[in-house]
Amino acid sequence: MAKLTLENLIEQNKINGKRILVRVDFNVPLDENRNITDDKRITASLPTINAITGNGGKCILMSHLGRPKGERNMKYSLDVAAEKLSELTGKKVIFAEDCIGDKNPQMISGMKSGDIMLLENLRFYKEEEKNDPEFAKKLASYGDVYVNDAFGTAHRAHASTEGVTHFIKDCAAGFLMQKELKYLMAAIDNPERPLVAILGGSKISGKIDVLENLINIADTILIGGGMMYTFYKAMGLEIGKSLLEEDKIELAKQILQKAKDKNKNFLLPVDMVVTDKIDGTSTSSVAAFDKLTDINLMGVDIGPETVRMYSDEIIKGKTIVWNGPMGVFEVDEFAKGTFAIAEALANATAKGAVTIIGGGDSGAAIAKANLSDKVSHVSTGGGASLELLEGKVLPGVAALTDM
């Protein structure tokens, strides 16, 4: 990634005394009382914030929260994030009650070196997601320098991720953005081999482009989750009432053929956990992949034989990318396969492999398994990491200043 970084700006002494406009991802989960239930996205931005304030910059943060649909809805106010950030940094965070409010220029001019300000939710304005140039210009007027540290929104060309870069000369990647790109781009462009890709999740349709790209670059591909049943159907097998994308059967056949033509180690589960109710209230059993003949049963997880087979493949890998759970991991009884894969990744990491979890449900699964700190990198951006794995260019990254 030949893009300007915050590290470069610090080396060039472009932070001290300057207004640094920073796009962060404070889209944190809240409970019904608006308490933050997981502050990982805020803590992930601390290295960038602390580097700016520690080098004498005036740190002006902007983010979105939830989906207020372009209207001012205080349920989605970032005031709770400002409080949490104050607590984490030990500094009083100035909170601007409107991201483009009339008082903002005066508040910013009153900031001292090392101060932090957080602007109210960007998505209170529909202009943010529309990448409106005038809205972007107003935001850009608050900064001498722009830093994008919101990897989770880098796949969207919004006013705060792409638009502002047209009005500010120096636009750099923050530490979190840099870390995300380092791991994910290395896995795609220059992985240490064997490269093992584990793909799960409910549907092939959400992973078509990832599958197409990874068939070209991965050495081994392990399939799990709901998408496996469409592959089985493409092979002429019965799947009971398991999840099926009828309109993707032909595509699944093409993917299987492509993997064969390219001589890839493309593996599907050899057994599965089956049940008649997905909520875990019914008994479950294990069935071989070609023995799901009961039309009242559905597959909900990979089986123990598959866990053994996949774990053996994972431990051989030098670079391992995981995107998508192996089953209905939200139900404890059907989380065993997903947790076992997480455990295998932790073991591979301990043996020196680079292990990358692609955010979203995979990130939630490895957190639920209490193994987030036992792998090399857990991405903070599900959609953005998916698009990178698809081989796409992220607008929020492309917009940064070239080196």
Task: Describe the 3D structure.
Strands 3-4-2-1-5-6 form a six-stranded parallel β-sheet. Strands 9-8-7-13-14-15 form a six-stranded parallel β-sheet, sandwiched between helices. The protein has a three-stranded antiparallel β-sheet with strand order 11-10-12. The chain is elongated and about 70 Å long. The mean pLDDT is about 95. The chain has 15 helices and 15 strands. By secondary structure, the chain is an alpha/beta fold.
Radius of gyration: 23 Å
Which ranges are low-confidence, i.e. pLDDT below 50, for 5 or more consecutive residues?
Answer: none
The biggest sheet amounts to: 6 strands, parallel
Number of DSSP helices? 15
Compute the number of strand runs: 15
What does the overall shape look like? Answer: elongated
Could you tell me the mean pLDDT? 94
Structural class: alpha/beta
Cα distance, first to last residue? 9 Å
